[in-house]
Fold this sequence. Notes:
Blueprint: H1 5-24, H2 32-39, H3 43-49, H4 54-71, H5 83-100, H6 105-112, H7 119-143, H8 153-174, H9 178-192
Helix pairs in contact: 1-2, 1-4, 4-6, 4-7, 7-8, 8-9
Amino acid sequence: MKLTAKGQATRTRILDAAAEYLRGEAPGGVTLDEVLAASRTSKGQLFHYFPGGKEELLLAVARLEAERVLDDQRPYLDALDSWDSWAKWRGALIRRYRAQGTQCPLASLMSQVGNVDGAAEVATALLQNWQAHVRRGIQRMQDSGQVSLGMDADRMAAAFIAGIQGGVTVLRTTGSTSHLEAMLDVLLAHLRGAPTEPTVPFAA
């Protein structure tokens, strides 16, 4: 649907208002009336700009949330070219997920639109884009001689993304970022070529 400038502004207003509301509330089970009230939109307006109704709107909000995941890691994610920048990226990640806590707007939104066309692509695109940023950072470090050329940059980037997702899953259960921090520290040590064994052996 081709929109006029005014129509695009209205659609964006609806989307931004719904997104802001859903970031402050647990999105699971949100009703269409709640979305309408939050965006100060009539049902006719919402269905005009989002013909698929609530599910289409929530999918659009999920796309915004996916972009926000990466935006919250910037500018460090875009410039992983020194150990200082990697440390700052780690810090940005921990701050983001500490602030998020056990609530994950994107996961909650995706649970509601899981069977809608395009839902799987939102999650897949996010993970692929995220991994590509990390891979480019590793390759920059290899180009500057700070990381071994023998390291498989794409495989290492995949380990970071899988580890982050695992750490966030534990966070949503426990409310603690300790597993996420441990994973990042181990992988960063491996990236540096440092030993990752515990300094104190586990008791037999």
